[in-house]
Amino acid sequence: MKEYYGYSADEFVKKAHFPVIVREDNQTIFKELAQIMFDTIKENNEKDDISVIVNPVGPVGQYPYFVEMVNENKLSLKKCWFINMDEYLDDNNEWIPSDSYLSFHGVMEKKLYSQIEPELNVPENQRVFPNPHKLDEIGNLLKKLGKLDLVVGGIGITGHVAFNEPQPDMSNEEFLNLPTRTLNITKETRATNSCNDLHGAMEEMPYRAITIGMKEMFTAKRIVLGCFRDWHRGVVRHAACGEPSASFPVSLLQLHKNMSLYISESVADYTLD
């Protein structure tokens, strides 16, 4: 057994190769992620600057808190560019329908955009998803905008961030240079996601996805991840204490200049002893 699976919560936080912030429960984590998004935009607004943020569907618990903060404080999102990490594809390499239960387009509309007061909302042309027919679009957009302020995300069972699934045959440098692309979802991810999102109906889970790459994500000034599920107990230890490797992609974020991980006490306290 890997030594890090036996770490106590205190040992884990101390030995992690990037900051690990332990919070009481999931809702506290979601509030903090929302606050980070809010503060990033507020600071840029005060400088009359744009905000460029890569957002996930998973976790999504931060969005209700973010919506509340935006509406109550009348924070304008007009100068924001919100880029989604990924999306499921059908067998023809098209986005799944937006009215599908699994559609990330649909989730963002329901959880975020439809809840923000119209006069504050992100302009529709600044709500961006990776496009399977324009793979260079996000990379070119980030170059045009000149920055990426923040990436918010989670970690999948295979160590994937967005849908950057493991590539054991690649060097770390090769994997970190992978841009936006379409790919097959691993059987492990399909199984886990079907349990999380479809109550185990794995035959309904897509086989394909599009994802932004590590190449784009590593340009971010700041990356924050939140983990809160029972199975994250082992995943976060591998992520923060294992050797950086394309075999477990999130571990490569140890190499980023400003990466932090927020976890609940229940995730931090677990060991395999």
Can you characterise this structure?
It contains 10 helices and 10 strands. It has helices at 9-15, 26-46, 62-73, 104-111, 137-145, 172-176, 187-198, 214-217, 232-241, 265-268, and strands spanning 20-23, 51-55, 80-84, 86-89, 127-128, 150-153, 181-184, 208-211, 222-227, 259-264. α9 links the parallel β9 and β10 (259-264). The radius of gyration is 18 Å and the shape is globular. The termini are close together. This is Glucosamine-6-phosphate isomerase.
Task: Offer a quick outline of the entry.
This protein has 273 residues and is α/β, with parallel strands linked by helices. It is 34% helix and 16% strand.
Core attributes:
Rossmann fold; about 15% strand; alpha/beta; globular; seven-stranded parallel β-sheet
Number of strands: 10
Largest sheet: 7 strands, parallel
- Structural class of the secondary elements? alpha/beta
Tally of discrete structural domains = 1
The radius of gyration is: 18 Å
- The CATH architecture would be 3-Layer(aba) Sandwich
CATH topology: Rossmann fold
Unreliable stretches (pLDDT < 50, length at least 5) are none
- State the helix count: 10
The mean pLDDT is 96
Question: Could you tell me the strand content as a percent range?
Answer: 15-25%
Distance between the termini: 10 Å
Q: Percentage of helical residues?
A: 25-40%
What is the element string, with H for helices and E for strands?
HEHEHEEHEHEHEHEHEHEH
Q: Looking across the biggest beta sheet, what order are the strands in?
A: 1-10-9-6-2-3-5
Specify the overall morphology. Answer: globular
CATH class: Alpha Beta
